[in-house]
Amino acid sequence: MKQSAVLVAAVLTLATGAWAASNLNLSKSNINRLQRLSTPVTASADISGDRPTLVYRTPDNADFVLTQVCVGPINGGVLLNFAWSEQTVRPLAFVQGGSCTTFAGLGLSLPPSRNLSCTPAFDFEAQTFCTITGLVGQTFPAATPTPIR
């Protein structure tokens, strides 16, 4: 009887500790806060030729999470590019013509004050569109753990 009481106490202690740890980590997540306190955003641009076309600039003073990109019909698809710095522009995704790409999970968190642009991958004479959707929320300070006493 005494051993079963000790076993039950140990299991309850582990379960409570696991719940507390996950609650602390999940409640401090900026993504979780952004989902609750955000505004959906959609931006679209007509694209043609072989030059990148600006679709959206991430806000200077708010968090931005990219959730989806869609393109109209085009042979060869479109590259969604992101300017990680003034000198570094890299593709984030390739989207086939006439389709959408959704970023798994909660989306893709992107740094502030940067450009998202679309460029035709192969058909430089086609005219189509590129649309992004995402979430814009307030900027939060870095989460700090609270010590358990």
Architecture overview:
By secondary structure, the chain is α+β, with helices and mostly antiparallel strands. It has two domains: 1-35; 37-138, Sandwich (Jelly Rolls), CATH 2.60.120.1330. It has two helices and nine strands; from the N terminus they run H-H-E-E-E-E-E-E-E-E-E. The protein has helices at residues 2-27, 30-36, and strands spanning 38-48, 53-57, 62-71, 78-83, 89-95, 100-102, 108-110, 115-120, 127-138. Strands 1, 3, 6, 7 and 9 form a five-stranded antiparallel beta sheet that branches. A hairpin with a 5-residue loop joins strand 4 and strand 5 (89-95). The chain is elongated, with a radius of gyration of 22 Å. The protein starts with a helix and ends in an 11-residue tail after the last strand. Mean pLDDT is 79; it is low at 18-25.
Short account of what is shown:
The chain is of the alpha+beta class. The chain contains two helices and nine strands.
CATH class of the largest domain: Mainly Beta
CATH topology of the largest domain: Jelly Rolls
Count of folded domains: 2
State the major sheet.
5 strands, antiparallel
Apparent shape: elongated
**In what range is the share of β-strand residues?**
35-45%
Tally of helical segments: 2
Residue ranges: pLDDT <50 for 5 or more in a row?
A: 18-25
Count of beta strands: 9
Rg, rounded, reads 22 Å
- Fraction of residues in H or I helices: 10-25%
**What is the end-to-end distance?**
31 Å
Q: Structural class of the helix and strand makeup?
A: alpha+beta
CATH-defined architecture of the largest domain: Sandwich
H/E topology pattern: HHEEEEEEEEE
Mean pLDDT: 79
